[in-house]
Amino acid sequence: MTPYVGGMHSITSPWHSHYCFSFVWAVQLACRFSFHSYLCLFQNGAVPGEPVKKDENSRRGNWGNQIEFVLTSVGYAVGLGNVWRFPYLCYRNGGGAFMFPYFIMLVFCGIPLFFLELSFGQFTSLGCLGVWKVSPMFKGVGYGMMVVSTYIGIYYNVVICIAFYYFFMSMTNLLPWTYCNNPWNTPDCTGVLGTSRANTTFANVSAVMSGLTEIVNRTKRTSPSEEYWRNYVLNISDGIGNFGEVRLPILGCLAVSWVVVFLCLIRGVKSSGKVVYFTATFPYVVLTILFIRGITLEGAVSGIKYYLTPQWEKILDAKVWGDAASQIFYSLGCAWGGLITMASYNKFHNNCFRDSIIISVTNCGTSVYAGFVIFSILGFMAHHLGVDVSEVADHGPGLAFVAYPEALTLLPISPLWSLLFFFMLILLGLGTQFCLLETLVTAVVDEIGTDWIIKNKTYVTLGVAIIGFLLGVPLTTQAGIYWLLLMDNYAASFSLVVISCIMCICIMYVYGHKNYFKDVEMMLGFPPPIFFRICWRFVSPFIITFILIFTVIQYKPITYNDYVYPSWSLVIGFAMALSSVICIPIYALFKIAVSEGSTFLEVRCVLPKKLSSAP
To answer: Between which residues do disulfide bridges form (predicted)?
Structure first.
């Protein structure tokens, strides 16, 4: 960001007294009227006596400053998967040895694709639909991104609302999933703190544990946290086709979640850019608090050893490399449309190359850091149960709502730690949800493009939020968890890989790599480093193809615990996966059909168009 330079003046010149008077006047005005008025004087980094910096793009607007963009992108990339998926993958794929292929994939695939999408959106200052002026025939890629973001936005907010529910339920003296003498518990329930609500002190917890160790080792126990999750929170039905009733507490939390998202996006990036100062940074405060508490617990070292102990022989396993590539690809949010959308609000000459490296490395560093937090607590739990860490390690909803909450019941003042943990999950989820909703809203507004729709963007945001809430209602029924996992496994899996591959090929080989390199040089003031040029043209498409092949080869029909999904539900899952990819050929055929020209080569939409810069 180029600073405003008003000229050089002597400190004793009349200009000096003018600036001092301006500052005093500003302070007096702030005291006389309101703190809000005072803040307005410093809008966009302006100081008294200087003109307020205006947006380069007066119609769409820009970020208030570059920190807002970086924090928003960090919040978008760092999500629930960093906490509940990466540590488990690392543990299952060779511990510390998994870090090697993970960072290799980050360098050769993650950062290049991240930079590609940021530069693409920033140069055009358009959302995931508008950018395809580069080659109108491939606009279906943008529609595919919208479909994927819609699916993810629907079920992602349901996960956030469940975190809200657990957060509210933690506001008590005793966590409701601590003991087994509740109406929803079964005879198979075995609590790590026994079956009494007596005031058991932390000092005699070990004595209670020793009595239970034999039972735990002899039979597969059902924990009170698992029964609370299945029988009370979800009240889960016997199958995906049996919806049962709507779980009203979950529905209420879903409404709260959508209201929060809408209010934070009520003024687009102008409001969300301010919110992320808290939502993108406070999770690190919570992670650090939980980390410090975790490593001081007995058995924490054994948990961390399970997490990091390298098994070098696994490096030769193709599955390890496939998991590493997939985790990098999905955790960075490539092909969702969010990166293009967020970058489109940047100022034209912003150094998005620097931003892409900062955000990508921060995302991966957070994943590694979260592993210490998770496995230190799980190691403590395994120590008290007298079992192996692998017996308590889990991922996904099982980690967030069963394993980790149960471990928290062993800590003194357990409701406090539970509040912190679920508050962290809420903030991590909201950071991603902000960008998903903004992606859809921006695509709609850019596509219509009238002054009225731009001026009344808030109504579009409200409409998308209401539709998202209504579409999420089925996921709050007794069969909701089955549908949530179905969407998570199919709606945003291999379709993202296909979309990303086609986008990369279109930019590099249809629009032309030389044209794009010149565009980036015009925007940044320097050409893309040769490493990135090679990755964009050859390495990244190859790795994306590898991920796609790996995903197909490793495919297994989805299950939930012992429940096997029926065939008709898998058909729906594949239909959701194909619904985003099918947008690409359908729109291409439509564009060719309605375009002028009697032969394929004469059709204008087939030929690439030179991108026009935003300013």
So the answer is: 180-189
Residue whose C-alpha is closest to residue 105's, from 544, 588, 505, 486: 544
Q: Is 82 annotated as a binding residue?
A: yes
pLDDT in tens, 30-55: 333 333 333 332 333 333 444 445 67
Per the CB < 8 A criterion, the answer to whether 119 and 349 are in contact is no
Task: Please write the tens of the pLDDT for every residue from 461-520.
Answer: 999 999 999 999 999 999 999 999 999 989 887 899 899 999 999 999 999 999 999 999
Q: Please answer whether residues 194 and 208 qualify as being in contact, where contact means their C-beta atoms are separated by less than 8 angstroms.
A: yes
Q: 281 with 190: CB under 8 angstroms?
A: no
Q: Which residues of 465-582 form beta strands (DSSP E)?
A: 559-560, 563-564
Average pLDDT of the segment spanning 409-419: 94
SS3 content of the chain, % helix, strand, coil (to 5): 70, 0, 30
Q: Are 512 and 111 in contact (CB under 8 A)?
A: no
Reduced to 3 states (helix: H, G, I; strand: E, B; else coil), residue 412 is: coil
Which pLDDT belongs to residue 2? 38
Q: How far apart are CA 386 and CA 376, in angstroms?
A: 15
Tell whether 78 is in a known binding site: yes
Write out pLDDT tens, residues 144-181. 999 999 999 999 999 999 999 999 999 999 999 999 99
d(CA 149, CA 131): 17
CB 97 within 8 A of CB 314: yes
Annotated ligand binding at 62? The verdict is no
For residue 560, what are the β-bridge partners?
563
- Tokens coding 217: 């080792």
d(CA 393, CA 302): 13
Does the pLDDT at position 1 exceed 60?
Answer: no
Say whether 75 counts as a known binding-site residue.
yes
Rounded alpha-carbon distances, angstroms, from residue 189 to 185, 220, 223:
6, 10, 6
pLDDT of residue 113: 96
DSSP character string of 172-197: SSS-TTS-S-STT--TTB--TT-S--
Q: At 65, list the tokens.
A: 């400053």
Tell me if 606 is assigned to a ligand binding site. no
- Alpha carbon of residue 456 to chain centroid: 27
The H-or-E segment that residue 270 falls in is: helix 269-279
One-letter amino acid for residue 89 of the chain: L
Q: Report pTM.
A: 0.85
pLDDT, tens only, 54-86: 677 777 889 989 999 999 999 999 999 999 899
| 48 three-class SS | coil
Amino acid residing at 396 = G
Minimal CA–CA distance to 469: which of 249, 312, 257?
257
Contact partners, residue 366, CB within 8 Å, separation at least 6: 78, 82, 284, 287
272 and 476 Cβ atoms separated by less than 8 Å: no
Task: Name the residue among 491, 476, 497 with its Cα closest to residue 570.
Answer: 491
Strand partners, 285: none
